[in-house]
Amino acid sequence: MTEIRPRSDALSESVEMYLKTVFELGAAGDFVPISAVAGQLDISPVSATEMVHRLEAEDLFEHVPYRGVRLSPLGQKRAQEILRRHRLWECFLHGRLGIGWVEVHDLACALEHAVDQTVTEPLAEWLGQPAFCPHGNPIPDSPGAVPMEGKELTELALGESGVVMRIRPERTDILAYLEARELRPGAQITVNGKEALDGTLALALGDKMVVVGESVAAHVLVRPTPESETIP
User: What is the model's pLDDT at position 1?
Assistant: First the structure.
C-alpha cells in the first residue's frame, strides 16, 4: 500500500498561508499593503510585518516600504503550487464528496499543507484535470500558469450587467454571505442601485433583489455582458 507521507519540500503552514494570501491579493503582480495581508489572515500588522521581513530574507517576498509586498519569482512558484493543491482538493471535496460550496474552503486549507506531488498529480488526473475550483478560480497547471480575468463587482456602473465568474480571495465568511444570496459563479446580475456614500450595491438577480456591501463585492469578479448599458 502506498504510504501518504508529509511533503519533503514542505514550508511551514504559516509561511504557505502568507504566500497564498499575497498571491491572491496581488494577482496581477502588484504590491500588496501589509495591512491587507494582516486583515486577510486576521493577524496584527506587527506580526505580518515581522513575517514579511523573514520571507524577504528567504527570497520569497520583495518588500518596498510604503508600497507593500509582492512575491519573488521563487515565492510565486511556491504559491502557485499551494493554490494548485488547494483548488484540486476543493474540486474533490465538493464535486466527488458533495460537501458544501462554503465548507470546502477550510477543509482544503488543511489538506493543502498535508501531502506532496505524489498525491496532488494523481488526484488531478483522477479528477480529469479540472480547470477551475468550485468558487470559479483557475487551477494552476503543472508548470504554474494561472489565467487572470474578471472585473470586480464594485467596478460595474449603475445599469451594467454581468455574470459572476470568481470569488477571490476566498474566505469562509464571505462565501457563506454570498451563498445566502445565491451569488455564485454563473449567476447573472444587474446593478440597479449604488450608494455613493458607502458603495453598497443593489443587484437584480433573476426575479429578486439582493444588497451587497462594498467590502464583500470586492471579492466578486464578474464578466460584463456585451449588451450591458450604463444608465445616464
Answer: 41
Tell me phi and psi for residue 32, to 5 degrees.
-115, 130
Number of structural domains (the chain) is 2
CB 140 within 8 A of CB 124: no
Q: What is the CA radius of gyration of the chain?
A: 19
With a cut of 70, list the residues of the chain below it in pLDDT.
Answer: 1-10, 28, 142-149, 227-232
Domain of 55 in residue numbering reads as: 13-74
Q: How many residues does the chain have?
A: 232
> What's residue 65's pLDDT?
92
What is the pLDDT at residue 3? 47
Q: At which residue does the C-alpha cell 512575491 appear?
A: 71
CATH number of the domain residue 181 falls in: 2.30.30.90
Is residue 17 in a domain? yes
Residue 166's φ and ψ, nearest 5 degrees, are -145, 155
Cell of 200: 453598497
For the entire predicted model, the pTM comes to: 0.85
- In whole angstroms, give the CA distance from residue 74 to residue 143: 13
